[in-house]
């Protein structure tokens, strides 16, 4: 289990992710992805979440039935 509270990815995780999806990038771009992953993860962790799915607001969009 990952105990990292920032949610950031390690460099090796980014390389594995790219390999898994067939993404071929130069070393400089992989390093940049690693830098950006920390910022994106910290931003995501700062977004308030509802404590329970049952307490989320009702959907306002209704699919048309016709």
TrEMBL record:
Q: Which domain of life is it from?
A: Bacteria
Q: Which region ranges are annotated with the description Disordered? A: 44-66
Name of this chain's protein? Uncharacterized protein
Q: Which organism is it from?
A: Achromobacter aloeverae
């Amino acid at each position: 289990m990952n105990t990292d509270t920032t949610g950031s990815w390690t460099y090796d995780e980014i390389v594995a992710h790219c390999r898994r999806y067939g993404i071929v990038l130069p070393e400089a771009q992989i390093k940049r992805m690693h830098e950006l992953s920390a910022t994106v993860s910290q931003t995501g962790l700062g977004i308030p979440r509802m404590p329970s799915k049952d307490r989320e607001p009702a959907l306002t969009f209704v699919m048309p039935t016709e």
